[in-house]
């Protein structure tokens, strides 16, 4: 009877999943909202399935050995493991039923899909199976044996590893991935040719929730490069090559594998600390017998040493990666792209201060330290860092509004930086026309392009557009010298200086008092006016 109920449960979940999939299709949603709705529906159905499975297991005991296994006999590990395995198979069946039911809906509604490599599909389902069955076996062991803590420590390692594996973009964002276009593949081929390495499998994803903009995983013939679509759209060939070169060197030195081992050491340390506390409570409060406390203390010490040693080992892969990037791309380009993408090409928080203990335990040095190291190695003048916290002296950090750098504003800034001067002037003309101005782009000069905007009352204003990196200033000399003097055939009543860089203080001190808009203010105006789509439509 129990097995029949389990089968009925799986069939019922499959039918329920199909109904949910049909409802999703009828909503007519596409893109990111569609993907999120599908994922949430899948998680909800899996939760329902697990709940009913537990209920059936408790009420009807579908596995005959469960009653014997729950007698808390420490020597019946075979029975207990069999019970946990059977329970895990049911959970895995729930996951498989829901996935198979909703997957066709995803294929129907998504316009762009990527070809998932066979090894990725195998790795995905092996991970799901290990997590489902392994977690169930660990749960039963914890509940039924006196050696629960020991078995928990043994079983948790592959579970944590497989969970980290599930965090790959191909799994967590499967609804928002695709194959690269021909131009994108051509650019990436050029990057790997400069590195004298073979092109790996490529998966492009579009998900602002993902932590990394580029991630090269795997070894030898099964390497796969996951790359954010915005990174391909907003970078030049040299900037993209710098990011890829650093990522390729990290992959060659097994950065992500070492990164996983560090977190496993953290997990082992946490478990052993909990065990030690439990042993102390047992001895002091319950007058119990401790189970080899010295062994647990020794294991905790080994875990702590492994954790710190692993951190040092992982950090040692970063500086060689930076040297690999500067060997194929101009160091000045490398430091600028590092500054711009500081939050999305590293796995650590860039807002940490020197007093933050997490900074000492981070698996990567802060981006500011990496940029300053590049400047020292290549005798470059220190640049002002705009996207990372720079700490030149102890406790003296750069004052900047960390809340300003939202994902939307960062994306707008990247798009502006990827434009050329002509495209930037065209966008400024489009932007100003939203306020009822008729805009005309004049002939381009060496460093700027002027846009003449005509108001409804017939008066005119001149917009001087200056496209340059975010850390380069527009100075007063550029506006007052013979070369930079503002001249126009039409009489203008107002002059605005608009730049993607920053405005030097000398400009604000000019007697003419021009209106200035720097890169940060421009990003805020674009966001307030909801012109992200117009910005994306402007050719880079």
Automatic annotation (TrEMBL):
It comes from the Archaea. This is Uncharacterized protein. The chain crosses the membrane at residues 6-25, 37-60, 80-103, 124-143, 149-168, 260-282, 294-314. Keywords: Membrane, Transmembrane, Transmembrane helix. The keyword Membrane applies. It comes from Salinadaptatus halalkaliphilus.
């Amino acid at each position: 009877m129990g097995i029949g109920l389990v089968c009925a449960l799986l069939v019922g979940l499959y039918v329920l999943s199909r109904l949910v999939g049909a409802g999703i299709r009828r909503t007519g949603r596409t893109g990111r909202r569609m993907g999120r709705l599908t994922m949430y529906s899948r998680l909800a159905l899996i939760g329902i399935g697990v709940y009913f499975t537990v209920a059936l297991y408790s009420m009807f005991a579908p596995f005959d050995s469960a009653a014997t296994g729950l007698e808390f006999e420490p020597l019946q590990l075979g029975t207990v493991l069999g019970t946990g395995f059977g329970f895990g198979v049911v959970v895995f069946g729930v996951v498989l039923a829901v996935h198979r039911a909703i997957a066709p809906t995803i294929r129907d509604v998504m316009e762009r899909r990527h070809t998932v490599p066979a090894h990725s599909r195998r790795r995905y389902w092996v991970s799901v199976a290990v997590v489902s069955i392994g977690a169930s076996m660990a749960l039963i062991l914890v509940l039924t044996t006196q050696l629960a803590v020991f078995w928990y420590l043994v079983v948790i390692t592959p579970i944590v590893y497989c969970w980290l594996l599930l965090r790959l973009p191909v799994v967590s964002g499967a609804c928002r991935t695709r194959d690269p276009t021909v131009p994108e593949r051509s650019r990436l081929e050029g990057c790997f040719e400069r590195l004298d390495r073979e092109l790996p499998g490529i998966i492009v994803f579009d998900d602002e929730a993902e932590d990394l903009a580029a991630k090269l995983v795997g070894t030898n013939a099964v390497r796969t490069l996951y790359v954010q679509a915005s990174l391909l759209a907003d970078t030049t060939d040299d900037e993209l090559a710098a990011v890829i070169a650093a990522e390729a060197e990290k992959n060659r030195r097994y950065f992500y594998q070492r990164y996983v081992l560090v977190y496993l050491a953290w997990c082992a340390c946490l478990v052993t600390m909990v065990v030690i506390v439990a042993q102390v409570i047992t001895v002091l409060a319950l007058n119990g017998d401790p189970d080899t406390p010295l062994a647990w203390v020794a294991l905790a010490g080994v875990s702590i040493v492994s954790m710190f040693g692993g951190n040092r080992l992982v950090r040692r892969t970063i500086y060689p990666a930076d040297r690999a990037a500067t060997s194929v791309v101009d160091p000045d380009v490398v430091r600028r792209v590092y500054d711009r993408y500081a939050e999305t090409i590293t796995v650590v928080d860039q807002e940490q201060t020197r007093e933050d203990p997490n900074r000492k335990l981070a698996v990567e040095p802060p981006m500011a330290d990496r940029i300053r190291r590049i400047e020292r190695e290549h005798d470059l003048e220190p640049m002002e860092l705009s996207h990372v916290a720079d700490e030149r002296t102890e406790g003296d950090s750069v004052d900047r509004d960390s809340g300003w750098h939202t994902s939307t504003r960062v994306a707008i800034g990247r798009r502006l930086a990827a434009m050329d001067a002509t495209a930037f002037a065209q966008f400024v003309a489009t932007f100003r026309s939203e306020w009822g101005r008729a805009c005309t782009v004049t002939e381009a000069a060496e460093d700027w392009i002027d846009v003449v905007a005509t108001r409804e009352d017939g008066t005119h204003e001149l917009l001087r557009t200056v496209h340059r990196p975010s850390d380069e200033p527009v100075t007063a000399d550029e506006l007052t010298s013979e070369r930079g003097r503002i001249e126009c055939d039409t009489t203008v009543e107002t002059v605005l200086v608009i730049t993607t860089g920053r405005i030097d203080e000398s400009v604000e001190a000019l007697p003419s008092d021009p209106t200035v808009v720097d890169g940060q203010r421009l990003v805020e105006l674009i966001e307030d006016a909801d012109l992200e789509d117009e910005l994306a439509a402007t050719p880079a």
